[in-house]
Design goal:
The chain folds into 4 domains: 121 residues, Methyltransferase, Cobalt-precorrin-4 Transmethylase, Domain 2; 51 residues, no CATH class; 171 residues, Heat Shock Protein 90 (2-Layer Sandwich); 80 residues, Arc Repressor Mutant, subunit A. With 449 residues, it is of the alpha+beta class. The chain is 33% helix and 24% strand. It starts with a strand and ends in an 8-residue tail after the last strand.
Amino acid sequence: MERTGSRSSARHLADLLIGFANAEGGLITVGLHDGRVEGVSGSGLVNGWRQAAMDFTEPPVRHRFEMLPCTNHAGDIDEIVVIEVEASEYVHHNVKGETYLRIGDENRKLGSFEARELEYDKGQSVYDGSPVADAVLDDLDDRLVDRYLRRVRAHSPAREVLQSRGLVAFHDGVPRPTVAGLLVLGRSPQSRFPHAHLRLLEYHGASRETGSRANVARDVRIEGALGQQIDRAQRTLRRWLPSAIRLEEEGRFERASVIPEYAWLEAIVNALVHRSYTIGGDHVRVEVFADRLEVESPGRLPGLVRIENIRSTRFARNPRIARALADIGYGRELGEGVNRMFEEMERVGLPDPLYMQGPASVRVAFLADSLAGKVMDALPLGSERFVDYLSRTGRITTTQSVDLFGQSRPTVLGHLHRLAELGLIEHIGTSLKDPRGYWRLRRGAKRSE
């Protein structure tokens, strides 16, 4: 949401419209500024604001413009402007050819390369707003729809509200649920999207084993609308995860999961919101090991998001799903979610979340072992793949380390020797040239604090 003052120009408002339309949509208010209700009555700029999209955005940004009554800071009857911006399947720019993208609470001007990247990624954002050709409005769950309408404080007919948020669209002249509508509000989304489910796995030990050594202790498949999946996953993981007594911010000692609940729950929400639903045959997985929790989702990082900027950059592959779940209380605004994940892990003395991107998926690992944090602190930036592998397996060869660091063998040996000098790892073998030798986490090192 953006609050802007009553003196804002139509051109400035147009750039805000562009930023929201290129991202996930959102709300703009005119007449609220610096914590005060200024109001807009008597302003000669209102007509310009109404025409801002037509006059200054290309293609014109779709939005809804409303004047709402209010009492201003002086105690007088007044009005404010509320503009609801739709997430767009197109990339919009202003009449000067400038492209903006809403990232957190900033309207960021993009360079030419970033604008081209955005155009490429926008192609995928059409999918969650596509009507499902054989679906009907009765496929939506009445209870979920009613709850949604209450949360958004809807005053218009239900179909109009759902259509304005991309959850219903017309197909061959008939209103039908969109992909987002079925996934968020559907009675049985998996009847049409069998891959849109969540799987929880718990393992004995700290590694995945197969065949005769298979070590899966529990395997739960969770279906239903996305909010229902999140709620059930939260209840299940509260039972599965080990707990500890911690002093909370309120000054009380309470029992909480060893890995902060906010961190792993936000990761699950993000996985369900931002996964690629166009990839069939794969699903979101949450895996619980003795020393960590991992969340993996189909599809690479969306839009302009990269591992190195994941705390500051936000882009929704599925903007309608993102907005609908935020409307009913899932997900965070202003990019707070990922930032707070890092903060919560730091608060309890655990390593930062480790993000890994494969050819067709993204995985984030939460390590429940402070020893891994010490290893990370002793290494340069970009060592996440090495630390993740060592934490998962407890052992690693020099050759594997060279591959994971992506550096020369002498440089990697320097890293390994430094960790050994700090007492964090030890070499097992007759010598450093032993072909069967390997490095392992030091048995004598404390694994928790």
